[in-house]
Every structure is written in structure tokens, then in C-alpha cells.
TrEMBL record:
PANTHER family: YWBE PROTEIN (PTHR40069)
Protein name according to UniProt: YwbE family protein
Organism: Paenibacillus nanensis
Highest rank taxon of the organism: Bacteria
InterPro entries cross-referenced by the UniProt entry: DUF2196 (IPR019240)
């Protein structure tokens, strides 16, 4: 893994990432996918930048692959 996913500039559409879905926040289960859209506007977020994957799932980035 390259980055932690808390800095918006590190994340680009087309990158493969690990995210935590809203439903999985309690368990911390990670979902792997490719970034379609970046949904967080601020330059950084302590819990991870929110993204939409190409399959439509939305979650916060926990790792950049």
C-alpha cells in the first residue's frame, strides 16, 4: 500500500484503492475497487477521503494500492 487515503491530492480517478463502506464502519471490513469520483471537497479528512468506485459503491479510502 502506498498511502493512507487521508489526503485528497494522493487520490486520482482510475486508481485502485481499499475503502470502508458506511455499513462496514463498525467491523472495518475493506472493499477493493477502482476510483470513479472523489466526493470529499476538502484537501484532507482524518477518516479518509470519500470516493465512489466504478461499481457505484461509496466509502472512505483506507489504503491506496
Amino acid at each position: 500500500m502506498q498511502g493512507k487515503g487521508t489526503i485528497r491530492a494522493e487520490i486520482k480517478p482510475g486508481q485502485e484503492v481499499l475503502i470502508v463502506l458506511k455499513a462496514d464502519q463498525r467491523t472495518g471490513k475493506l472493499t477493493r475497487g477502482v476510483v470513479k469520483d472523489i466526493l470529499t471537497n476538502s484537501p484532507q479528512h482524518p477518516h479518509g477521503i470519500k470516493v465512489r468506485l466504478q461499481d457505484g459503491q461509496v466509502g472512505r479510502v483506507k489504503g491506496i494500492l
